[in-house]
Fold this sequence. Notes:
Oligomer: single chain
Helix content: 25-40%
Amino acid sequence: MPVNISWLLEGRIVDVKYSGDVTIEDKRQGAELEFDFLEQGTAPLVHVLLNIADQTSSPTDIKAIQGALDKALKHPKKGWTLAYGKEEFRMENFVNSVVTQSFSVRYRTFSTLQETLEFLVYVDPSLRDVIDIE
């Protein structure tokens, strides 16, 4: 499956990794799994890190993506969604930006995991003592 989801930090940060050619169905399955993780979250806001470094393609139909991600993006515990791993994947970043804005989700993109974690600690200072920033 082109999507793998786990906890980066139990109950607080979800780690979502897409790889290969990602389809609308993959996005839908990923959103269902993400929703389950958000449900299990222990913090008022659960953040999602979206690793697209190994992703080679992604759907661009904004309406279809909105439909596939609807449930997860509307979750009341949804914190920041931070994508990283492919600076040159501009279409993916543009589509994600449009989709997340339509749901008023906080979304940013970064080149590296390090930059992503530095930003996350900045916007959620409660993570300072539990995330190791070099």
